[in-house]
Amino acid sequence: MSPVWFVIIAGVSALIAAPVTRAAGRFAGPLLALVPAFLFVSLLMQLPDLPVGTAILQSIEWVPAYGVSLGFRLDGFSLLFSLLITGIGTLVVIYAGSYFSDDAKDRGRFLGFILLFMTAMLGTVLADDLIMLFIFWEMTSLVSFFLIGFKHEDAKARKAALQSLVVTAGGGLALLGGIIILGLTAGTFSLTEITAQAPQIATSPAFPAIIVLVLIGCFTKSAQFPFHFWLPNAMAAPTPASAYLHSATMVKLGVYLLARFDTGFGEYLIFYAPLMIFGGITMLISAYAVMRSTGFKAVLAWSTVCSLATLVLLVGVPGEAGVKAMIGFLVAHALYKAALFFAAGQVIHSTHQYELARLGGLRFKLPITAIASLLAAISMAGVPFFLGYKAKDLFLTAAFDGGSWGMWLTVVALASSAVMTAVAGLAALKPFFLKPPYGEVKLYHNEYYGMALPPLALGLLGLAIGVMPAPAWNSVLIPAMSALYGSTIALEVHAAPSLGLKFLITLALLASGAALVWFWNRLYRDPDNVKANVVFADLGYGAVMGWLDRAGQVTARLLQMLSLRTYIAVTLGVSTLALLLALTGFSADMISAAAAEPVRPYMAVVLVLTLIGAAVAAFARSVLISILGVGIVGYTMAVVFLLNGAPDVAFTQFTVETLSIVILLAVLLRLSLKPAPQQSLLKRPLALAVSAGFGIAVGLGVLAMSVLPFDRRLSDFFGEASYLEAQGHNVVNVILVDFRALDTLGEIAVVAFATLCVWALLRRRVKKEG
Amino acid sequence: MTLLYALSVAAIMAAGVYLMMDRNIIRIVLGTALIATGVNLVIFLAGRLGPTAPAIIETGAYTLGEDAANPLPQALVLTAIVIGFALLALAAIVAYEATRALGTVNADEMIAAREEGNPFEPASREGSSARK
């Protein structure tokens, strides 16, 4: 199966999710889970075709003019990601089917979003073309918005959804900028080709800009400092979405893209130093924040931020050790964290209790969940014979090999590992195995199998890979490492721990984690500690959004003064100045030249009438007289047309002017209000100045126009072609209905729409009165 | 002669703008109508005046004679007149409806009435509360 089919099949399943759910009812979850399961198996079957160091490339032309194509790339790394996406996706769909068992409508909507999200994720990790990658990348942000705001009647959920969208889509814009500069510099959007010519790109002056923009995009997506705050808030999403998007897959996209860039640009300081610095800061912040969190999901969320930071940091570690540790930790984290979220969802769903502090003693009430949770926690804590142990072992190796960064890496690694061990104990053990501090926890319903078996599967998988490491490591993890590293990586994985310094450190970390759990109750009930949460919340985001709001208000007040007079004064004042500026090239001679022209006496009389009409219209005290003034101007114009060889125009003008006056008078008479006081001439200096200035400028413009050479080409063409090509004698008519027929159609449409509007307004009035 | 035409254009435009800056909404509508007329005249003048025979090809001839008026601006002005009329009719009816609904022909008062629902203005601003 070629890569594009994975995306297409996932996309179709998203489209049919809602109707299938309606039809299948309770079995919708397992039924729809067949799609990701099928994709998972198909991906596994690609393994033999994909020896270490190879990639399946597929390219479909899309926008060849801009060098954009639907380019797909399936190599060891994207295969690993795709397996995680479809594998955990299968479990999430089953889990969500149970999670929404009370509400069929929500279930269909949710499953549709989840499968749509899976499509976007597959598209992102299978993309070779960066533009295509970006489109799917943004699609994941959008679906994430809908899933965080899934409980849309909850104001907090809506706010969190908007926040995540602003942060991730804002970062997405930066990423797009980086991709476009990169594409222009490299002459291609293909990731494969860009990686191949990385040394040349690194010498271009645009290189720093590219790296900074791409880093911003990745940091927002993967919740790295200073954009770390959105992820804990995103926990407003239903738990299956938190497990899938905000822990196992989507938030790892930033890491994914960083790792892709690391293949080509990993040796450049400007690329890897920010990863180490910001990754390390994020690790410390989140490790501290997790100690201060009280919500079940909040603890898991902060620990996820910490894990993401670990991954970012490991991408930054140069050389083989970093890649090995990154892949190992990526897989281990995806398995145990999704399991812990699943377990948390089960606990919250059945107890309606969100606070970790109030939970305890559920081991017999939710037995399967308790076991799954235990398995996941042991893996997370890094106990030997579990996948998590190997991941931690590789992490420590990378930290010790870190060269000049070794000290920083070791400190951060140890600190965060200790806290993660504690979180594992806290999140997994406390609700189930510790005594409930405030008495028995009330259970609203028993364990749902649909929600208990998925975490159990993940927990057992972590144990299986730990005990029997060879199949998974050799066929999936090591090829992924090699694809990233660019050459084959040799790594022998044994189930049994190797004794030595690292083993001792692991034991010490376990002990310190246990100590933290033991003192947990005392630690976070301290009110000072709770207050400290504020430090890590979204104050900066709130401030920026507040400034944006205020800036918007100030601009709106400045520009939207709600006064037609001011608008006219500004626009026409500026236009007048511009016109006069453009006229500076013309001398006073043109006025004298125009004045010297012979005057047609009867025409002069007509134009004097026009002047009088205009003056009457402007200065009459009564609106009725003003209308008469406008009428005089209109009729004299008709005469002007008539006397200058335009009888058709003249007749139209006569008709229209008559109709206009009828309409205006009808409106005025029906209103029959007391006349509005008109301010006297001298009290309106601004109106007088603006209108006089504009009139003079336009008049001068007409004079200037008349001395410019005249281009007759169009008129001559119509004069010559009207009869020969369109068989019409009346040239004006031929132009209207033939040469410019589309214009005339547009004109008719405008009149039709105006008529419709007028009719709608008047009919409303008639109905009300009738 | 051009001087007189230019003077007329200036007068029509100035009168139109002056009316548009009035408070009475009916006068604002009149202003737009005047400006439309003034623009039509400018378009007409842009085709240059001179020959006064209509732009009609004589029977037996195949092309337009030398003494005929320029047909192009005439076609443009014809379209513009009709559109201007549609605009005037719509503006007049909207002004009428607004006046009936708000009980005033004063555009400033209409805006004040609208401002009561304006999210950018504090509710306690003078004017909005006085008119409640």
Automatic annotation (TrEMBL), chain A:
Subcellular location(s) per record: Cell membrane; Membrane
Transmembrane segments: 27-45, 78-98, 110-127, 133-150, 162-189, 201-220, 271-291, 298-319, 325-345, 366-387, 407-428, 448-466, 503-520, 569-596, 602-620, 627-644, 650-673, 685-708, 744-762
Keyword Transmembrane helix in record: yes
Domain MrpA C-terminal/MbhE: 684-764
Matches recorded under Pfam families: MbhD, MbhE, Proton_antipo_M, Proton_antipo_N
Membrane topology (UniProt): Multi-pass membrane protein
InterPro entries assigned: CPA3_Na-H_Antiporter_A (IPR050616), MrpA_C/MbhD (IPR025383), MrpA_C/MbhE (IPR046806), ND/Mrp_TM (IPR001750), Proton_antipo_N (IPR001516)
Record-annotated NADH-Ubiquinone oxidoreductase (complex I) chain 5 N-terminal domain positions: 66-110
Limits of the MrpA C-terminal/MbhD domain: 608-671
Keywords on record: Antiport, Cell membrane, Ion transport, Membrane, Transmembrane, Transmembrane helix, Transport
Primary site of residence: membrane
Domain named NADH:quinone oxidoreductase/Mrp antiporter transmembrane: residues: 127-412
Organism domain of life: Bacteria
Protein known as: Na(+)/H(+) antiporter subunit A
Gene transcribed to yield this protein: mnhA
UniProtKB/TrEMBL annotation, chain B:
InterPro entries for the chain: CPA3_antiporter_subunitC, NUOK/Mnh_C1-like
Main location: membrane
Keywords from the UniProt entry: Cell membrane, Membrane, Transmembrane, Transmembrane helix
Subcellular location as annotated: Cell membrane
Membrane topology: Multi-pass membrane protein
Keyword Transmembrane helix: yes
Pfam families: Oxidored_q2
Membrane-spanning residues: 6-21, 28-46, 75-96
Family to which this protein belongs: Belongs to the CPA3 antiporters (TC 2.A.63) subunit C family.
Protein name: Cation:proton antiporter
